Amino acid sequence: MRSSSVAIVVAVAVAGLVTALKDRAAFQEMLGFGGSGHAPAPQFMLMGRVTGPEISPKPRIDVHAIADRLHAATTVPPLPQERGTADDEVEESVTLAQAPQVQRPASQPANTAQPKVDESALRYFASRGDKARLQAEIARLQALYPNWVPPADPLAVPQGGDKQLEQMWELYSEGRYAELRKAIADRQTSESGWQPPPDLLDRLDVAEARARLVNASDLKQYATVVQIGANTPSLLTCSDIDVLWRVAEAFARTDRAPRARDAYVYILKNCTNPQERLATIQKASALLSYATMQDLLALERPDGNGGREFDSIRNDLARRFVAAGNDHPDLAVAPAYLSIVQRLAETDGLASDNLLLGWYQLRRENYADAEKWFRAAREKEEDTAIASQGLALALIAEKKPQEAEDVMYKWRGASKEATATYLAATANLMALQPPANLSEEVLSRIAAEIIAQKYVPTAQQFGWFARTLNQPQTAARWFETALRWKPDDEPSAYGLAITRQQLRDRAGVADIQRLWAGKSERIAQLGEANNRQTTQPALPAPAQTVPQGAAATPPEIVRAPNRDEAANPPASVEASRQMRTVTVRRGARQLRGCTTTVNQQLLDPEASLSRGWCLMDIDRPMEAVKAFEAALASPNRKTREDAAYGQSLAYLRAGLSNHAAVAATRAPQTQQRAAELQVAILADRALAAFDAKRYREALIYLDQRAQLRQEPIDLMVLRGYAYLNMKMYGDAERIFTAAAATGSKDANRGLADLKASTHPDTVD
Hints:
Residues 1-24, 34-111 and 528-592 have low confidence and may be disordered. The protein has 35 helices and no strands. The termini are far apart. It has helices spanning 4-31, 63-68, 86-95, 120-127, 131-144, 163-173, 177-190, 198-218, 222-231, 241-253, 257-270, 274-285, 290-297, 314-327, 335-347, 351-363, 367-381, 385-397, 401-409, 416-430, 440-453, 456-468, 472-485, 490-502, 506-515, 521-524, 605-617, 621-631, 637-653, 657-664, 671-691, 695-706, 713-725, 729-740, 745-758. It is elongated.
């Protein structure tokens, strides 16, 4: 029969309506379709009108057993009419596969006349062998006529002989509603005064409303779905669960989540079909929030076998909830669901479970756990873009950018997110301090990708990296490239300015200062270009503003470490203690006359200043201190400035860094001299702390110095030995390896000492 499935769903709705009629008002109020205080809703059922109160118990009949015998009616005598006593009815029901009993209401005597009921639909469905519609029609008539008792065999009832009406019922059962409307109209035109049965019209109205609701739902016209449901409340029963699901979805899709929740709650509180209840939870989980789903799951019932009715989908629910936690970092998923997914990840062999846990932990900054789950996912799937991206983000957060770059290089072009992750890894890698020991191949591939993507943060970090290797020309080109891509990048402008200063390109420095006038104080104050005199003590000089690394995705996870900036790189690599001496240009002076002892009080300040420099040249720093002290009494500002500067250098030469710091404050110094003195003082203090075996203190001084000037190789070696003595072997190896790459013999010796400390058995 054509379109029978659609018609069957409509007919089956009647049975559910009968049982849900009492709850309909509550459901309408719950969904906002009506409620207390309003006019009572019309007393419509799915296929007829309610004319009286429902009386219990209702007569019931073994419909399935009857229907099984319908097609044999032509050869087998019809079943007898219902028996006269309740005992006979019970006996018959037991005979027919233990079906429910057919009983008359207690208030109806056995010989009471049956009410006049239109049984044409009942006979039609029985003749067609339509069990579902037969059951629905019996339930409908019982609700309309409480005293009516259905016949034991509807086929035994004489047929009315109205062939046209039978054809109309057939059109209805096949879902051909437009043709049915036309047939009714044609007969009313041809037969004056003929009216179709009211229940047929009611059925047709409801069926058409349902068809419109389903069509609107399929077309995602959710407002129309809600409106039809409001206008046809007889559709909203457990007998037509699909309509309830569609109305609930319409509420969810129109941002009325509380109403959607109420619809699903109604189903779980009133509908009993196990498969439909299970499907309800599945549908709701795709539309409702984690918290709302917990309200629905609280309505779960025991399954009768020692478990719960939703146990079969518990794993899928746990996966969905953990995925929701990935989208919302503030959502705390219950540990029970996390445990389920962890068990699945360990036993089922699906990489997707590992990925769920990896992203969940990553969003909560549990980087070690995230790394573990992402690595497991890569092992199961032999590496994928999404697993590598998650692993790389975890490694970056754990300050392992070199491994992150290696992990993501293969997948750098898989998606925009993958590209962003790779670029972030490169920026973090190039910003490592001390610099990572990178092969030419890695540097080349990073540079090629940065140029292709025009990625400013890593281009800028390439500039600082080149300065670390004392390659100012290369550094300048990278800073210029970064500024071409992003003209307002102040850290790149500052890097270019100090690099041009190192290259003695005064005009280039002046150009940058002119372009950044009023935008960057540190660029404006660079060197002595402004010939500015300070009125405050020069020490300690403020640390330079530190440029940040790559802005990456996601920002809450990827952060580039601070990059040490240099005011002036060392001109050559000297022994550590030789670095205490700061070389400056001074006017010509005579060495003659400083080799003999003189009465300092007899010399004028200018002569004392000249004698101080002379004594420094022949390495007699403590005598130079006294000469510079006499020069400080000069009324000339420039003489006092030079005397304070010289006295600080003399104290440094003598290893008295604290005295040097005090001497530097006795007269204003230019920014360049103040920086030179502070760098030298910090280096001297680091050496003194190292000699006293205060290795942690030595590292602090080295870090402070590195904020002002790039660390020379000899101090890098000193840093490596500090790490070695503190048994921080990984840091020591990284430092020694980086320094050894420049050809430093001291660094190679440090690597040998490190090997002797960590693997004494392998040393000859």
